[in-house]
Structure formats: structure tokens, C-alpha cells
Write a structure and sequence with these properties.
The complex is a heterodimer of chains A (355) and B (277). Chain A is α+β, with helices and mostly antiparallel strands. Helices cover 24% and strands 32% of the residues of chain A. Chain A has two domains: 4-233, Rossmann fold, CATH 3.40.50; 240-348, Nucleic acid-binding proteins (OB fold (Dihydrolipoamide Acetyltransferase, E2P), Beta Barrel). Chain B is built from 13 helices and no strands. Chain B is globular and about 75 Å long. Classes of the chains: A alpha+beta (355), B mainly alpha (277). Chain A binds chain B through residues 50-52, 71-73, 77-79, 81-89, 98-99, 102-103, 130-134, 136, 139, 146, 150, 163, and chain B through 166, 168-169, 171-179, 182, 187, 190-191, 270-276.
């Protein structure tokens, strides 16, 4: 096991920069999730750590040792691919033991390690099968098995669950978490699914357009998103945003387009008449009147999810969503009172940064 | 509905049958003439099978003609060409499929360009080049020429097979501890066996039946390949159709054997199960 230090990493394809100055210290045994939309550079960063992509500038250290120029095979890391990348002409057992055979590990030791890993992943009855005779979930397990037999310095996961159906994904997510708990291995996990990021990570690295947006614990990112991108990316349904102007005073207001003002319970950390964006998560909107002034929102659509209800509402021309567990809103129509509690509000300045 | 689909199935099978019959008829005729004794060849008129079949032409061709020499020459030339071309095409196809390098675009263009000329145009210059090197009237010369002409197409063929193998596989192998070459040899190559078999077969048959260069570059029976050798059955005053056809039937044997040998790889989709699919 090892720490991984990423210092001012840059990557360009020709003249096209895809990663800008990424700086990241991953502690020994930590589970770090790189999350962001497709094309944000998260997979490229992972592949640079693996040695599958060259480093344009900066330095990567694994266990304190510079690895920029090392071939993947000399970095002592294991990787699980989105496509699983199992060797189709080898049995499950041969797939799992390939790395050990390459390293000329004694046969008895290979047998013990593979049996151990297979037991851990429930693969014993499948050891003689070829990958094509396995289901998606089983292939996924073999791919993990191939990674754990080696006890590498770090595990890299490149969207390992994206090819599985929703139910299986949930199950494998839990297994990965359990596995990490057992092995305590340094892990870097790439995904575009914020739920996976939230549930698995010790720390999340949110990325967009090749730039790290925020690094922090899952709840950090949820409670205190550093900017509009993170605020919008983490959480489902996504955070509501209102562009408008802040008016300070005895009764502070946030005026949004359509000359509607949202009354605020407490002063915001903004200058008077400052242009800003107000954010609030759908689950934090209170669907009840609030003295002294009740804000009324129009109900556009009601979406029951079973667990709760997503209400599509609008204030003037600005649409937003609210989430509630109260089933009486299933039949909501016309207008309903809404309240935005002060301690649930997020404010972002003109650049989109949190204030 | 059922009646209609049954009718369509029958029509479909009949159409295939008609096509197969049409395509295979010349082969049948080859065999028929080969087993027809000389005295019956012109006397019986047109019939599907002679009233008396014999193997006398085969016997003559094998024991009293130069055919075994032609056959051996063809085997050497086609076999060597197939092996050399397949090795070169595997390596270059892999490079084209996996690496980015300077001049790749121009290389591919040049290779395509070589495929655009009618071969007849090139016979004279090639003769001119090979002659001072002592490579005319030599099997080695033929292998070199056939290799040169088959490598571009075979490279594209192999490239498409390599393209079909996910890059993830060799990346996984490299992370598992293999060098790029070990990954190529242990992971990619076994998966490309169908492609290699197809390339071998394609090049072998192409070289086996090539007439033009063989005719131009080889003189005399000693180094002649079998397509040229067949012409020796045409003499000034007559054509020995029976012997010619018998030689033709014998010449089909290696091609058939070859395909029997590799058909296992041709039909087997080895990559199934590598990635989600």
C-alpha cells in the first residue's frame, strides 16, 4: 500500500490542453473518487497514474517514488477497466493469475492466492470458465479478482460499474466498499455517477473541463459546494439556482427576474445590490407558509418516485424543483406556499464561486 | 403468415442452391473431364458423366509429366509468400492499428497507391530490376515480388483485425506486468488467430493461382509454378484437355487442405466475452 502524490500535473494532446495543473495528495489507504461529466479529464488523470498516458508536465509519485517515466508494469498498481478487459482466451483462473505468472511466482503460491481471492469474491465455481460464459456481474468480479491477487500498491478503477444494470451496480458498489474495508488499499475510483462518488469515497475530487473544482469529503461537497459546478453536479435532483440581485436592509430580499423577491430569514454575505446566484437543494425547500410574508409558487408537474415526490414549481418565469416525502402533495395544483430556510441557502458570486 | 414465411424460406434456399450449382459447375466439369478417357472425350457428345471413368490422366500427369515439379515449385512459392507476408502484415498491421507515428498518413497513402496500378504495367520495370540481381527465373524472385504485392492489402486486412481487439486488453496486460511486446504475443496474437488464418489463406491462394508474373519472370520448366505448367499441356498441335484437367484437380488439393486446416479459426469468434457485449 502506498500514498500517491500528484503535483501540478498537466496533459495536452498536441495543442489541446485536457488537464490543467492538477494537484492532489492521496494518503495511504484512502479511497478517492474522481467525479465529473464525461470529457472532464478524470479518466485521463487515472490513466496517467497507471502509466497508460504520458505526463506533459508535473510529477506523479507513488510511495514517494517518481513514476513519470516508469512503464505501467513497473508501477505496481492494479486497474479495473469499464469494459472489464478480461482475456477472452483464458479461463477465469488464468485471467486472475496472469500477473503472477508474468512475475514468475511459484505455482503453489499462485494457487493459494487465486483460491483466496476467488473465495472472497464468490468465484470458486467459475474458475475453469472462459469470460464469455460469465454474466456481467461475474465478469466484473473476475476483473476485481485479477486486481486483488497481486496486492499492489494501489487500485485504480475506471468507471467499473458503468456497464452493469442499476440493481447490480448497487450491489457491486457495496462489495467494492466492503473490499476496500477488508484490504485497506489505496484506491482511486473514476466515475460520472455522483451517487457512486458519495457512497464510496473518503474524499471526492470533483473535476470539470480539466480543472479540479473541489476536493473534500462527500458531505463537504454536499453541504458546502465550492462553486456552481459542484453545487449542480452533486445531489439528485440537482440544486436549484436563482440568478438575481441581493437587497440588504431590515428585511433582506433576493430579487429574481420577473420582479419576484425571495424574502431571506437572515442577511446574506453579499454587498447591497450585488448580482449573485442563490442555490437551494430541492430537499431543503419547506413547503409551507412562513411569516411575515408567504412566497407562492405555481405547481407545474408532480413526479412521484415512490420514496418521495418531486414537485416541478415556478416562481414567475423561473422553474425549480422541490422534494418532499409528504404524500399529500401528490394532488397539489395551483399555487403552494414555499419557504427557503436561511441556513440551507448557498450564494455564488458572478464568477460562480461560493461566497 | 406461416405459409408465407415457409414459402420465403423455400425460395431463399432455392436461390442459394441455384447460386451454388452455378458457382460449382466449372469445378464439376473440371473433375468430369479429368476422369474421361481420351477416346471418349470427343466421341460421347455432351453428357454429365462419361460412360467409363478412368484415372489414366492422373497417372500420366503424376508419373510422366513435369507436373510434380510445378507442384513443388508452387508449394514453395505460395507457402513462403504466405508465411512472409503474414508475418510482415501482422507487425505492420499492429503498428498501424495501435501506434501514432510521424508519416503514418503518407505511409498508408503510399500503400494504397501501390494497389492502384494494373500489374501489367509493372511487369517490365520489375523484370528490369530483378534481372541484374539474378532473381529472374528463380523462385526467390517470385516470392519477393508476390510478397511485395500482397503486403499492403494483407496489412490492411490485419489492421482491421487488430482494430477489432479492444485496446483495453493490452493495457490490462501491461498493468498486469507485461511489456508491450509480451502483451502483443500473449494476449493480442492468440486473439488474432482467425485474422492470421484468413490472411494466410488469402495470400496463399493468391500466390497459388498467380499467372502473369510467373509467366514473365520464369522461363523453362525447372522453376515454373503450376499455373504456368498448365500451359505446357497446350502443345502446338493439340490440347491435352484430360491431362490439363487432371493437373487442375490435383492443384486444387493443397488449397482445399489449407482451408480445411484454417477454417476452424475462420469461423471461431475468439474475442467474444472480452468486453461487455
Amino acid at each position: 500500500m502506498a500514498s500517491i502524490d500528484i503535483a501540478n500535473i498537466q496533459k495536452s494532446y498536441g495543442i489541446h490542453p485536457v488537464l490543467h495543473d492538477v494537484d492532489l495528495k492521496i494518503r495511504d489507504g484512502e479511497f478517492v473518487v474522481l467525479v465529473g461529466p464525461s470529457g472532464c479529464g478524470k479518466s485521463t488523470l487515472l490513466r496517467m497514474i497507471a502509466g497508460l498516458e504520458s505526463v506533459t508536465a508535473g510529477e506523479i509519485r507513488i510511495a514517494g517514488k517518481r513514476v513519470n517515466e516508469l512503464a505501467p508494469k513497473d508501477r505496481d498498481i492494479a486497474m479495473v477497466f469499464q469494459s472489464y478487459a478480461l482475456y477472452p482466451h483464458m479461463s477465469v483462473e488464468k485471467n486472475m493469475s496472469y500477473s503472477l505468472r508474468l512475475r514468475k511466482t511459484p505455482r503453489e503460491r499462485i494457487a493459494t492466492v487465486v483460491t483466496g481471492a476467488a473465495a472472497k469474491l464468490g468465484l470458486e465455481p467459475l474458475l475453469e470458465r472462459r469470460p464469455r460464459a460469465l454474466s456481467g456481474g461475474q465478469r466484473q468480479r473476475v476483473a476485481m479478482g485479477r486486481a486483488i491477487v497481486r496486492q499492489p500498491k494501489a487500485f485504480l478503477f475506471d468507471e467499473p460499474l458503468s456497464n452493469l444494470d442499476a440493481r447490480l451496480r448497487e450491489q457491486m458498489r457495496a462489495e467494492i466498499k466492503k473490499l476496500h474495508k477488508d484490504l485497506g488499499a489505496t484506491s482511486i475510483y473514476v466515475t460520472h455517477d455522483q451517487i457512486e462518488a458519495m457512497t464510496l469515497a473518503d474524499r471526492i475530487v470533483a473535476m470539470n473541463a480539466g480543472v479540479v473544482q473541489q476536493v473534500g469529503s462527500p458531505l463537504d461537497l454536499y453541504d458546502r459546494p465550492a462553486n456552481l459546478f459542484v453545487a449542480g453536479f452533486i445531489g439528485s435532483p440537482g440544486m436549484n439556482f436563482f440568478d438575481g440581485t441581493y437587497h440588504a436592509g431590515d428585511r433582506p430580499l433576493f430579487e429574481i427576474a420577473g420582479e419576484i423577491s425571495i424574502p431571506l430569514d437572515a442577511p446574506a454575505p453579499l454587498a447591497n445590490n450585488a448580482k449573485a446566484t442563490l442555490g437551494i437543494r430541492p430537499e431543503h425547500i419547506v413547503l409551507a407558509g412562513h411569516e411575515p410574508e408567504t412566497l407562492l409558487a405555481t405547481v407545474d408537474l408532480v413526479e412521484p418516485t415512490g420514496f418521495g415526490i418531486i414537485l416541478h414549481l415556478s416562481l414567475g418565469r423561473t422553474a425549480f424543483k422541490a422534494f418532499t416525502n409528504d404524500r399529500s402533495f401528490l394532488t397539489a395544483s395551483g399555487t403552494i406556499p414555499v419557504h427557503f430556510p436561511a441556513h440551507r441557502l448557498h450564494f455564488f458570486d458572478g464568477e460562480g464561486n461560493r461566497v | 403468415m406461416r405459409a408465407k414465411s415457409a414459402f420465403l424460406t423455400v425460395a431463399h434456399r432455392l436461390a442459394i442452391l441455384a447460386y451454388v450449382a452455378f458457382a460449382l459447375f466449372p469445378l464439376f466439369w473440371l473433375l468430369k473431364v479429368a476422369v474421361t478417357p481420351n477416346d471418349l472425350l470427343y466421341s460421347e457428345g455432351i453428357r454429365l458423366w462419361p460412360s467409363r471413368a478412368s484415372l489414366e490422366h492422373f497417372d500420366f500427369v503424376l508419373r510422366h509429366s513435369a507436373f510434380p515439379v510445378f507442384f513443388r515449385n508452387s508449394l514453395i512459392v505460395s507457402g513462403s509468400t504466405a508465411v512472409v507476408v503474414t508475418i510482415l502484415a501482422s507487425l505492420s498491421g499492429y503498428a498501424l492499428s495501435r501506434f501514432r507515428f510521424r508519416g503514418k498518413y503518407w505511409l498508408v497513402t503510399l500503400m494504397l497507391l501501390t494497389q492502384m496500378f494494373p500489374l501489367v504495367m509493372l511487369v517490365a520495370p520489375i523484370f528490369k530490376i530483378l534481372s541484374p540481381l539474378g532473381l529472374t527465373n528463380s523462385l526467390t524472385g517470385l516470392v519477393i515480388v508476390y510478397t511485395a504485392f500482397n503486403v499492403p492489402f494483407a496489412t490492411f486486412l490485419m489492421q482491421s483485425f487488430f482494430d477489432g481487439i479492444p485496446k483495453d486488453l493490452e493495457e490490462a496486460a501491461m498493468i498486469d506486468g507485461a511489456t508491450q511486446f509480451v502483451a502483443f504475443r500473449q494476449i493480442i496474437l492468440p486473439l488474432t488467430l482467425p485474422g492470421i488464418a484468413a490472411t494466410l489463406g488469402f495470400v496463399f491462394t493468391a500466390a497459388w493461382s498467380e499467372l502473369l508474373f510467373s509467366l514473365m519472370l520464369i522461363s523453362g520448366n525447372e522453376q515454373a509454378t503450376f499455373p504456368v505448367g498448365l500451359l505446357s499441356f497446350v502443345s502446338k498441335f493439340s490440347v491435352d484437355f484430360g491431362q490439363m484437367m487432371a493437373a487442375g484437380v490435383l492443384a486444387l488439393i493443397p488449397a482445399c487442405l489449407f482451408f480445411l486446416l484454417i477454417q476452424r479459426y475462420l469461423v471461431q469468434g475468439l474475442t467474444a466475452g472480452a468486453v461487455k457485449g
